[in-house]
Automatic annotation (TrEMBL):
Superkingdom per UniProt: Bacteria
Subcellular location(s) per record: Membrane
InterPro entries: DnaJ_C (IPR002939), HSP40/DnaJ_pept-bd (IPR008971), Peptidase_S54_rhomboid_dom (IPR022764), Rhomboid-like_sf (IPR035952)
Organism, scientific name: Desulfosarcina widdelii
UniProt GO BP: protein folding
One GO MF term: serine-type endopeptidase activity
Membrane topology, as annotated: Multi-pass membrane protein
Domain Peptidase S54 rhomboid: 66-213
Domain Chaperone DnaJ C-terminal residues, every copy: 247-320
Keyword annotations: Cell inner membrane, Cell membrane, Membrane, Transmembrane, Transmembrane helix
Alphabetized Pfam families for the sequence: DnaJ_C, Rhomboid
Name of the protein in its database record: Rhomboid family intramembrane serine protease
Amino acid sequence: MIPIRDTTPSKSVPIVNNTIIGINVVFFLVQLAHGQAQDHFVYLYGLVPAKFTVPQVSAYFSLGQKILSLFTFMFLHGGFIHLIGNMWSLFIFGDNVEDRLGSARYIVFYLLCGLASGLIHLLFNAHSNIPTIGASGAIAGVMGAYFILYPGSRILTLIPIVFIPWFVEIPAFFFLGLWFVLQLFNAAGSSGQAGGIAWWAHIGGFVCGILFLKLFDRIPSAGISQRMRPERKHSHRFQVVKTNRGREEANLYGTLIITQYEALVGARKLITVPWGIQNRLFNVIVPQGIEDGQVLRLKGIGRPRGDGTRGDMMLKIKIQHV
C-alpha cells in the first residue's frame, strides 16, 4: 500500500515540516558527497548502540560525538528510495500535526520522537555494532499523533495490482493501525533489525508520538506559530471529490475546494472520484476570476445513460477563507 495523500487539508503553510524535509535532503547530499568514505560518515553520525555499551567501541568516541549521533542519525538515509519513502510519509502526515501543535512545539515534538525511537532501538539492540539511520522513528511519532488527532481522515492509497493502479480511500485509523500491527509482527519475528530495518524504533516512535501529543496538548501555545506561518495560497493540487446523484440521473455533483488566491489567478487540480470499488483520476482547470458557488461542468464523465451517452460532472466551487 502506497499512501498518496490524506483528505484533511492543512490551514497554513507547514514551514517546520517543509524545513525538516529540506534538511533531510541536504544531509543526504552531504552523505553522498563523502563517496567511498560514506561508511565512515554513517558510522560516526549514525546510531550505533555499541558506542554506548561496548567499552572497546565506546573508547573511540567522545561524549559529544555519542550525544550528537542520537540526533544526527534521524537525518541520514540508506538510499534514494529510503529517503523518498520517509519524506513522502512526512509530507502527508506532518503538515496536519504541525497545524495542531503549532510550529514551535512541532519541531520539539519531532526531535523528541526521533530521540525516543533511537533510545528504544538502543534498548532492544544494546550490543549491536550496526549503524541505524533514517527518519522513520521520528516520522512514526508523527503518524502516532495523526492516528489520535485525525482518525476519521481518509488516506488515498495506491494498491498496485500487477500493472493496474488501484486507488482506494482507507480510514486513517485503519491505515495507521495496520501499519503499526505490521511493525509489531516484524519485530516479533526478527531480532529487531532484520534486513537493516529498526522495527522497535518504529514501534517506539509511534507509541511515544501518542504520549508526547498528550503532553504537548497540555502545554499552551506561545502564539509564535501564528506569526511564523503564512496562510496557504494554494490548496492541495490533488483532491478527493465526493460525488452524489439522483437515483435516475446520469450527472454527478461534487465540491472542489480552492483558496482565494487560486480563485483570483486560476489553478490546475488533479481530482480523484469514487468509481465503483476504486477511484478514477481527472484533470480540472479552474479559470481565473471564478467565484464562490460557481459550477464547473466536466462533460462526458458522469454515469452512462440508456442511449449510450454519458452525463456530466458538476463541480461546485467552494472558496476557502483561512
